[in-house]
Amino acid sequence: EAVEAQAKIETAIEEGGISEADAAELAKAQGLDSRVVSRDGEPLAVTSDFRPDRLNFTVNDNWVTEVSIG
């Protein structure tokens, strides 16, 4: 599920963008947790544990610019 959600968000980024709220909603709809790991160029304090049921977002001006699983 995480790989599918990641692919959907990456496609949305390539096609013009996806907001942080919409990306979080998409993750939740797939039964996944999500978190922001970087906001406006500043890394945020996050745990280093890998979770295959969680998406990590890099956000700039409330738009997701990168997504990864973990």
Helix content: 25-40%
Largest sheet: number of strands, sense, barrel closure? 4 strands, mixed
Secondary structure class reads alpha+beta
Instruction: Please mark out the parts with pLDDT under 50 across 5 or more consecutive residues, or reply none.
Output: none
- List the helices and strands in order: HHEEEE
Range of strand content: 25-35%
Task: Report how far the terminal alpha carbons are from each other.
Answer: 13 Å
Major sheet: order of its strands?
Answer: 2-1-3-4
Shape call: globular
Q: What does the radius of gyration come to?
A: 11 Å
Mean pLDDT: 97
The count of β-strands is 4
Summed up, the helix count is: 2
Task: Characterise the protein shown here.
With 70 residues, this protein is α+β, with helices and mostly antiparallel strands. The protein is built from two helices and four strands. The chain has helices spanning 2-14, 20-29, and strands at 33-39, 42-43, 54-60, 63-69. Strands 2-1-3-4 form a four-stranded mixed β-sheet. The chain starts with a helix and ends with a strand.
